[in-house]
Specification:
The chain has about 120 residues and is of the alpha+beta class. The chain has one domain (about 10-115). The protein contains two helices and seven strands, in the order E-E-H-E-E-E-E-E-H. It has helices spanning about 30-45, 105-115; strands at about 10, 20-25, 60-70, 75, 75-80, 85-90, 95-105. It has a five-stranded antiparallel beta sheet. A hairpin with a 4-residue loop joins strand 3 (about 60-70) and strand 4 (about 75). The protein is globular. It starts with 7 loop residues before the first strand and ends with a helix. The model has no long low-confidence stretch (mean pLDDT about 95).
């Protein structure tokens, strides 16, 4: 599966922990498609065989999700792994910017690359 909205930049620290950073800014008309893409990625991540949690604490992956609108106001955003749904309240007519950062072990990073055709 290729991603249409999330364009990840990859970096790695001295211990080999990968960081996948994506930023997407969309109009209110495109927000449902972006939300669906984030949901698909996080559903896949939660099904990954490894343990979610900070890599430095023995986890295989973790994530940080943030959102804001054109006016710079932060928006409450969360992902519910039980339902597989993203919860994000916005105001119509404004662009929404969403940032997603994944920290990952080498195994998670490789699986992510393969699943979402990332370089």
């Amino acid at each position: 599966m290729q991603l249409d909205y999330l364009d990840f930049d990859y970096s790695e620290d001295d211990e080999g922990t990968g960081s996948w950073d994506a930023l997407a800014s969309v109009t209110s008309e495109r927000l449902p498609a972006l939300s669906e893409e984030v949901q698909q990625l996080l559903r896949w991540a939660h099904r990954f065989a490894g343990r979610r949690g900070p890599v430095e604490d023995g986890g295989d992956w973790d994530y940080d999700l943030q959102a804001q609108q054109d006016d710079g106001q932060p928006l409450p955003v969360s992902y519910d792994p039980a339902t597989g749904r993203l919860q994000l309240a916005t105001q119509p007519g404004q662009r929404t910017t969403l940032s997603l950062t994944l920290s990952a072990s080498a195994a998670f990073s490789q699986a992510l690359r393969e699943r979402f055709e990332l370089e």
